[in-house]
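User: Predict the structure for this protein chain, please.
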Amino acid sequence: MGKKQISSIFVVDNEAVISESLTMILKVSGFAATSFVNPLEALTRARTFSPDLLISDVFMPELSGIDLAIQIKRCCPDCKILLVSGHAGCVDMQKAAHEEGHDFELLQKPIHPSDLIRHVRTLEA
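Assistant: Here is the predicted structure, written as C-alpha cells:
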C-alpha cells in the first residue's frame, strides 16, 4: 500500500500570528494549507471541504482543539490530527480524549519549522 499524500491542511489557532506563520511554513514546504483563527469556522469549512490534516492549538475560546478534532473526525473520518500546545495542562485533556478512543498526537509549542514539516511528512504513511 502506497503513502497517502497530504494535500490539504487546516491550521487552527486563535492567535492569528501563529496560525498564519504555521500556514506559511507549510505552504513554503509545498503543502496546501488554510489558516483559521476561529475553530467553529474551521469546523464549518470541514463539513464542505474535507482536509487531509488538522493542525490545531488545544486551548482556544469557543471550542478546544481536542473537541474540534473529535468533531472533524466525525465528519471527515480520514482526516489526520496533530495538536499543538504550549500549556502543560493539555496532557490531561489528551489523556481523557484517549480514554474515549481518540488518539491524537500532541506537539509542544514553540515548534521548530523543520520539526513541524517532519511530523507532517510522517503522517503521510
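The chain has a mean pLDDT of 88.
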